[in-house]
Amino acid sequence: MASLARFRPAVRRIPAFARAIQTSADTTQLQETIEDHSKPFTVKLHEESFRAYQCETPSLEVEVKKDELLKMYKDMQTMRRMEMAADALYKAKLIRGFCHLAIGQEAVSVGLEYGIKPEDRVITAYRCHPFAVMRGGTIKGVIAELLGRQDGMSHGKGGSMHIFTPSFFGGNGIVGAQVPVGAGIATATFALYGDGASNQGQVFEAFNMAKLWGLPAVFVCENNKYGMGTSAERSSSNTEYFTRGDKIPGLQVNGMDIIASRHAVQYARKWVTEGNGPLLMEFVTYRYGGHSMSDPGTTYRTREEVQRMRSTQDPIRGLQRYIEEWGLASEQELKQLDKDAKAEVDQAVEEAKQSPEPVAKDLWTDIYYKGTEPASMRGREREEVHYY
Questions:
Q1: Stretch 309-337: mean pLDDT
Q2: What digits encode the pLDDT tens for the residues 127-136?
């Protein structure tokens, strides 16, 4: 073994944040004077907002609306407040088990929702709370699920990683396992996974079958630069995840600018619904917290790095700057939206706390799809039988 160690190739060290793509949250430029706030207007994204592999990049000129930008701002604030509330509840030991938060990645979940249609399908891993709400769930339903209460979206039996709606297929706890499931449900489906799951064999198998069958699937890598406590450069020989689909075209996106995120999702949806087969999309983003609540997030990166990202590339602050500089709303009006978001989350938390815990008979429900249950189900012992 010692002799083998002498021939071990050196790991190529890449400086942190040595990215070719622009990841600032506030580099989009207004292209015209806004004379009527009720009408759409054109802005131009930074020229390095996208990188393409075997396809064209989206146009840098994007049409946006005042009302939509304000709604996206409110939604991002609300999703962050919800995750902050979950953080506090976990630290108070009211939430137990696994809990993975997406603070810092709001431009991905909210941007995705504003770029797709209600009938489209989304599936992701365990950093799933904002997607569940944006896809038709409720803040109360998410918080109650984290608390293990009956009003939870899975009736308190699924927890943080297993939350669903008719168009949101979870919340999945097995690393990478949601990607082939996403290929299987593909009807304009967005299957998300992290850079930490990108080397899973089942991910590449899903890519291959999707390309063979021309499935309308968008495989979305949320590259927040760290898989648990391991940087992307230490785990992946190719960190340009949008190029790893072999014959599947790919698109890398500035995942810190919500206008770029939404525009890229619209481009991807158009690609797959027009019969071009699958597309691989990589959002370059960043999480402020640890991998999960049990991870302080500072043993493999510096506090200065996290603070730098918070202060210079925050997606919410970036959209706030656009709205104020373009004269769409005042600072006071945005502060009111912030207060409204906090009030909405605070109310949902209090209501979730009042929900009762599941009772013993609930153990026998939600095992089978309604109407397909067998006549009876055996419990822990042979004599323990439940009849439907």
A1: 97
A2: 999 999 999 9
Average the pLDDT over each of 172-186, 337-351, 360-374 and give the range with the smallest value.
360-374
pTM over 0.85: yes
Type of residue found at 165: T
For residue 7, name the pLDDT band (cuts at 50, 70, 90).
very low
DSSP track, 244-299: TTTTS-EEEEETT-HHHHHHHHHHHHHHHHTT---EEEEEE---SS-SSTT--S-S
Tokens 């992701």 belong to residue? 124
Q: Phi and psi for 210 in degrees, rounded to 5?
A: -65, -40
What's the start-to-end Cα distance of the chain, in Å? 60
Angle at 226 between CA 241 and CA 280, to 5 degrees: 20
Locate 32 and state its tokens: 């015209």
DSSP 55: S
Eight-class DSSP state of 357: P
Contact 145, 158 (CB under 8 A): yes
Residue indicated by tokens 């999309």: 281
Q: Tokens 């021939």 belong to which residue?
A: 7
In Å, how far are 362, 370, 371, 388 from 367, measured between CA atoms?
Answer: 10, 9, 11, 11
Distance CA 136, CA 146 (A): 17
Task: Tell me the sheet residues that pair with 64.
Answer: 41
pLDDT value at residue 22: 81
Enumerate the H helices of the chain as residue ranges.
Answer: 2-6, 66-91, 106-115, 129-134, 139-147, 178-184, 201-213, 232-235, 258-273, 303-312, 315-325, 331-354
- Identify the CA nearest to 91 among candidates 227, 290, 229: 290
